[in-house]
Amino acid sequence: MEDSNGAEIKAPPPVHRRPPRPRGGGFTPEGFVAALRRRLSSGAAVAARASFAADSGDESGPPEPSSSHRRRDSSGDTSSTGGPGDFTAFSFRAAAPVHRKAKESPLSSDAIFKQSHAGLFNLCIVVLVAVNGRLIIENLMKYGLLIRAGFWFNSTSLRDWPLLMCCLSLPAFPLGAFSVEQLAFRNVITDAVATCLHIILTTAEIVYPVLVILMCDSAVVSGFLLMFIACIVWLKLVSFAHTNHDIRQLTISGKKVDNAPSTADMDNLQAPTLGSLIYFMMAPTLCYQPSYPRTENVRKGWLIRQIILHLIFTGIQGFIIEQYINPIVVNSQHPLKGGLLNAVETVLRLSLPNVYLWLCMFYCFFHLWLNILAEILRFGDREFYKDWWNAKTIDEYWRKWNMPVHKWIVRHIYFPCMRSGISKEVAVFVSFFVSAVLHELVVAVPCRILKFWAFLGIMLQIPLITLTSCLKSKFRDTMAGNMIFWFFFCIYGQPMCVLLYYHDVMNRIGKTE
């Protein structure tokens, strides 16, 4: 449209008027229903219903309005209703249904695992911090600061010099094993003679520190460290002898195998060298092979940070032992001689600092220390542990907790037993038996007592494996096995072993005095 001057005149926006209501008897239900349907089909009404569904927590509410409705609403077309914020829409009326479908409560058995529990997890952290903060304050008020400057080293530590000399002389046994292998690969001695010499060397390597500890009046911690190192060297010697014996069978004797080894496997079928032995004895692994995957360089900054963290967590372990565990243990009674309630109370009181100590030990040794060694030696395979904290069975825990020992047992005990025709159950029993003997040596020899507490603790894992495996097969998605693992290892098992060994050691010292 143009005016007299030729200028274009914009048409006024159309005025939308509500249609007149029928008068008197002109009202029909069919007309009301049709108008109501047109009103509910508008984009603004759909948006209003979606907003109402969100406010009322109804996740099954209507979808968002279509793009055409959104464009019409954004252009200012509010002919149907007063806009998305128009609370006169039907979705906001009392006649609109609130309960649209059958739904479970969030904590019901059918819906609990479909919900996010991040808020409850945060609550547990807050409660844990508050409870432990109170325990720290209570401990400081009751005992004061108990950590001593001479906790790790003092004047009485000088009497343990024979144990230090014993530890420094242990490398003679790997050199002896290397000499035996050199003679065997050159056909100077037979495989049978080499096997007998390795048995003598490995037996002498484990008996030698035992005799030194029993003959010297050394501290329990010093004896524990020596036996721990001696057991590591023994495991490495067994792997070195067993692996080279198998290499000789495959290369010299020409023994056939079911599947042909790959090119990378063939590169490892070599005679040992002095360099490969030295690297193996220092590397964070218990399984020997002539070559290992290596990293390109050493990350010096990362290595320094790990060393600092290792020192910090080592100090935290000493603080937990001196400030929390020692006062509880010293003021306790023998768990098998006192009352039942007293024993349960002591075990529960000791369980919390024991869990903290155990977790710090795991992080300090398996993560920090082994990664420090791997970084210095550029050792590539750093899978020292897996997610054992999520284990649903005791068997799964033992397969994930200590990967170097697990790989050693599978390679040198379990698989050889299976190849010999032994059943799986017997192979598992033999594996746990060897582990139980080593645990008993590491603990019993420094304490100078033979009570078989550590041995029984490991062997009792076998019925627990059966129990947790049955629970997992019966209740597929349950975490009952995980809770049993945490209870027996952290709440009951380890605190009970600490109390038993402490009071047995104190009784032995009291009798000698």
UniProtKB/TrEMBL annotation:
<dbReference type="InterPro" id="IPR004299">
    <property type="entry name" value="MBOAT_fam"/>
</dbReference>
<dbReference type="GO" id="GO:0005789">
    <property type="term" value="C:endoplasmic reticulum membrane"/>
</dbReference>
<feature type="transmembrane region" description="Helical">
    <location>
        <begin position="452"/>
        <end position="471"/>
    </location>
</feature>
<keyword id="KW-0808">Transferase</keyword>
<protein>
    <recommendedName>
        <fullName>O-acyltransferase</fullName>
    </recommendedName>
</protein>
<feature type="transmembrane region" description="Helical">
    <location>
        <begin position="192"/>
        <end position="214"/>
    </location>
</feature>
<comment type="pathway">
    <text>Lipid metabolism.</text>
</comment>
<keyword id="KW-0256">Endoplasmic reticulum</keyword>
<comment type="pathway">
    <text>Glycerolipid metabolism; triacylglycerol biosynthesis.</text>
</comment>
<dbReference type="GO" id="GO:0019432">
    <property type="term" value="P:triglyceride biosynthetic process"/>
</dbReference>
<keyword id="KW-1133">Transmembrane helix</keyword>
<dbReference type="InterPro" id="IPR014371">
    <property type="entry name" value="Oat_ACAT_DAG_ARE"/>
</dbReference>
<feature type="active site">
    <location>
        <position position="439"/>
    </location>
</feature>
<keyword id="KW-0012">Acyltransferase</keyword>
<keyword id="KW-0812">Transmembrane</keyword>
<feature type="transmembrane region" description="Helical">
    <location>
        <begin position="220"/>
        <end position="238"/>
    </location>
</feature>
<feature type="transmembrane region" description="Helical">
    <location>
        <begin position="118"/>
        <end position="137"/>
    </location>
</feature>
<feature type="transmembrane region" description="Helical">
    <location>
        <begin position="161"/>
        <end position="180"/>
    </location>
</feature>
<dbReference type="GO" id="GO:0004144">
    <property type="term" value="F:diacylglycerol O-acyltransferase activity"/>
</dbReference>
<feature type="transmembrane region" description="Helical">
    <location>
        <begin position="483"/>
        <end position="503"/>
    </location>
</feature>
<feature type="transmembrane region" description="Helical">
    <location>
        <begin position="426"/>
        <end position="446"/>
    </location>
</feature>
<dbReference type="GO" id="GO:0009941">
    <property type="term" value="C:chloroplast envelope"/>
</dbReference>
<dbReference type="InterPro" id="IPR027251">
    <property type="entry name" value="Diacylglycerol_acylTrfase1"/>
</dbReference>
<feature type="transmembrane region" description="Helical">
    <location>
        <begin position="355"/>
        <end position="377"/>
    </location>
</feature>
<feature type="region of interest" description="Disordered">
    <location>
        <begin position="51"/>
        <end position="86"/>
    </location>
</feature>
<keyword id="KW-0472">Membrane</keyword>
<comment type="similarity">
    <text>Belongs to the membrane-bound acyltransferase family. Sterol o-acyltransferase subfamily.</text>
</comment>
<feature type="region of interest" description="Disordered">
    <location>
        <begin position="1"/>
        <end position="30"/>
    </location>
</feature>
<dbReference type="Pfam" id="PF03062">
    <property type="entry name" value="MBOAT"/>
</dbReference>
<feature type="transmembrane region" description="Helical">
    <location>
        <begin position="302"/>
        <end position="321"/>
    </location>
</feature>
